[in-house]
Amino acid sequence: MNRRHARIFGIFIAFACIFQVTAAAQKADLAGTWQLNKARSFFGSDHPATEYQLTETITQNGDEISVTDAAVRQEMMGFHLPDSKTTTALIPDGKEREIKGTPLFPGMPQPTVDLSSEWQGGTLYITQRGVAFGGLSVSHKRYYLSADGSQLIELVDSHSTFGDGQQRLVFDKQN
């Protein structure tokens, strides 16, 4: 390879690196109201009731993200649970913060959990650590958009004294 070709190749590699870093630094706009598409989702060992509905509302205000889950007609181990609405505030800077989590059953005290979140390219990555029924519980969530932006995908990887679980939840954007 002569010097001219080596120089052109070097410039090409430099531009490719710049574009790759720029693309990796981009944050997705997850804001909106998203309705769970049960037919396209994988629930792992969970088996939601036929009437179960979950709506996620995500707002982004500067560097802060708020995720509100509204669940109706939910069941756990054959028990009907009251409809619920929970909001989690996220600051995606990779720092761990102590927050009050969501109790497993109504009437139970709110557990204290450590939560961290960060952007990994266009994916919002969340880690939550706490104690559940005497054992450590850890979950990792990844939120990202489909290529056309019409669906929000949430990958959940959880580990606890009850075992390990994986889910792939697909949400359709609401108008």
Report on the structure:
A hairpin with a 2-residue loop joins β9 and β10 (135-145). The chain has 175 residues and is mainly β. Mean pLDDT is 83; it is low at 14-24. It has one helix spanning 3-25; strands spanning 32-36, 53-61, 64-72, 74-76, 79-81, 84-90, 97-100, 112-120, 123-132, 135-145, 151-160, 163-173. It is built from 1 helix and 12 strands; from the N terminus they run αββββββββββββ. The N and C termini lie far apart (56 Å).
Major sheet attributes: 10 strands, antiparallel
Which overall shape is indicated by the principal axes computed on the Cα atoms?
A: globular
Helix run count? 1
The helix-strand sequence is HEEEEEEEEEEEE
Observed structural traits:
175 residues, ten-stranded antiparallel β-sheet, 13% helix, mainly beta, 12 strands
